[in-house]
């Protein structure tokens, strides 16, 4: 059988000593590429310090175990700032994974030409990245046509041996916003998949497999090559790849830049995303994603679009166990309401008879102009493959919600609103 995909299946040995995972998602309030690096560097500094102060863009990266995953939106960080981040991590101790969409620069252009990606890969290795994390992708890229253009993401971490790990992953399924009459704005659908298995330093813990995706990669839309949606392909071609891949994907990190359809009842992700999320949990074609949780990051305001984006949070294919949520978070569940036979999405306070899945998201803030970014953190009680009927996963616990406001001197001040009522 001809396999249309290449696969980069990596193993990173990470500092981790608990079955619970600490996850963060970042929601910038505006799409302003020239200001994105200040947001990223202020957040990693804020997580490092764990104090309520102002921070500029000086990088002094995180201690071990302050987070396991930190997710930023799609097309977020300029490639030059990515190299700065890698350089700064060379002298840091172990960190969790930072997943971000990247862009060539802060101009309106957000797709990379093929040769720009090859140059970026070379620059990352010079900055301290391990060549074996990038070589498979670079070898695939060399064989692509010169006039192709890709939307890229990056996952960066420092492993248990204090070595910088970074991989680049291209977007597989283009959205309607990436179709253009102009070649440099018309995205090439990449036939390249990325999985990262995080092997914990504590030998009694199970490895965790992460699949980084970009926005429409999570949808059930058509692709240029039939049967090559990035979710389906993991199971369809999984046993045919030259390198062994895990039996199950535990976490999907989804960096997005997407508007959502307004709802008169409660804010909700666009129906195409909701259908894609549920299909992973139900469809035979997605066996490797049956128990995956999805962590989503999005911009609140989407460029050139009157609709809001936002709703950064997480989807879990299990019933909602904890009903009371912080004021800044909305919980909705896919469930069968009383006196109904068909499951649907309901706000958390609706009485339901059968709970199937749920989603938690940041609410839309009442005042947009007074703040720059919202950071939502939570503990995943158990990776779902570890849950059982006698000790089920309780989903997301121990929320932390921080709002960052840019000061006149350009620094970002964070204050916590988790317990605001």
Percent helix, as a range, is 10-25%
In terms of quaternary structure, the protein is single chain
C-alpha Rg (nearest Å) = 20 Å
- Structural class, please? alpha/beta
What fraction strand?
25-35%
Main sheet: strands, sense, barrel:
10 strands, mixed
Q: What's the β-strand tally?
A: 21
Low-pLDDT segments = 50-65
In short:
With 421 residues, the chain is an alpha/beta fold. It is built from 6 helices and 21 strands. Strand 11 and strand 12 form a beta hairpin.
Attribute tags:
6 helices, nine-stranded mixed beta sheet, 421 residues, alpha/beta, ten-stranded mixed beta sheet
Could you give the topology of this structure?
Elements: E1 6-14, E2 21-28, H1 36-49, E3 54-55, E4 69-71, E5 77-78, H2 79-89, E6 97-103, E7 112-113, H3 114-127, H4 131-142, E8 149-150, E9 152-158, E10 164-170, E11 192-200, E12 208-214, H5 230-236, E13 251-255, H6 271-282, E14 293-297, E15 313-316, E16 329-337, E17 344-347, E18 352-362, E19 373-380, E20 396-406, E21 412-416
Parallel strand pairs: 1-11, 2-4, 4-6, 5-6, 12-13, 13-14
Antiparallel strand pairs: 2-19, 3-21, 6-9, 7-8, 9-10, 11-12, 14-15, 15-18, 16-17, 16-18, 19-20, 20-21
Helix pairs in contact: 2-3, 3-4
Task: Explain how this protein is built.
The protein is α/β, with parallel strands linked by helices and 421 residues long. The chain contains six helices and 21 strands. Strands 2, 3, 4, 5, 6, 9, 10, 19, 20 and 21 form a ten-stranded mixed sheet that branches. Helix 2 runs parallel beside helix 3 (114-127) and helix 3 (114-127) packs antiparallel against helix 4. The termini are far apart.
């Amino acid at each position: 059988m001809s396999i249309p995909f290449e696969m980069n299946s990596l193993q990173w040995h990470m500092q981790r000593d608990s079955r619970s995972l600490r996850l963060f998602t970042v929601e910038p309030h505006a799409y302003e590429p020239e200001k994105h690096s200040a947001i990223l560097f202020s957040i990693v500094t804020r997580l490092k310090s764990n104090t309520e102060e102002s921070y500029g863009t000086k990088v002094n990266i995180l201690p071990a175990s302050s987070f396991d995953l930190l997710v930023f939106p799609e097309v977020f960080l300029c490639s030059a700032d990515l190299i700065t981040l890698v350089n700064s991590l060379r002298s840091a101790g172990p960190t969790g994974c930072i997943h971000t969409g990247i862009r060539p620069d802060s101009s309106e252009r957000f797709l990379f030409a093929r040769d720009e990606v090859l140059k970026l890969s070379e620059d990352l290795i010079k900055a301290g990245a391990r060549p074996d994390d990038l070589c498979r992708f670079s070898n695939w890229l060399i064989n692509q046509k010169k006039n192709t253009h890709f939307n890229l993401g990056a996952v960066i971490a420092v492993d248990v041996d204090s070595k910088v790990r970074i991989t680049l992953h291209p977007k597989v399924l283009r959205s309607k916003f990436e179709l253009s009459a102009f070649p440099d704005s018309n995205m090439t659908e990449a036939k390249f998949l990325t999985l990262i298995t995080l092997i914990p330093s504590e030998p009694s813990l199970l490895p965790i497999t992460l699949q980084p995706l970009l926005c429409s990669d999570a949808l059930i839309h058509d692709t240029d090559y039939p049967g090559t949606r990035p979710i389906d392909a993991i199971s369809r071609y999984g046993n045919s790849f030259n390198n062994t891949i895990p039996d199950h994907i535990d976490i999907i990190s989804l960096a997005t830049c997407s508007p959502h359809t307004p709802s008169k009842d409660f804010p909700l992700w666009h129906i195409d995303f909701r259908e894609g999320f549920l299909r992973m949990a139900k469809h035979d074609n997605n066996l490797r994603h049956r128990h995956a949780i999805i962590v989503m990051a999005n911009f609140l305001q989407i460029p050139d679009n009157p609709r809001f984006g936002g709703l950064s949070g997480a989807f879990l294919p299990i019933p909602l166990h904890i009903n009371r949520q912080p004021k800044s978070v909305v919980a909705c569940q896919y469930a069968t309401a009383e006196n109904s036979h068909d499951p649907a999405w309901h706000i958390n306070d609706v009485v339901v008879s059968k709970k199937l899945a749920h989603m938690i998201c940041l609410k839309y803030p009442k005042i947009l102009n007074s703040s720059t970014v919202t950071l939502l953190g939570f503990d995943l009680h158990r990776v779902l493959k570890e849950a059982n009927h006698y000790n089920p996963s309780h989903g997301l616990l121990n929320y932390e919600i921080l709002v960052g406001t840019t000061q006149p001197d350009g620094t970002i001040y964070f204050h916590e609103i988790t317990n605001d009522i």
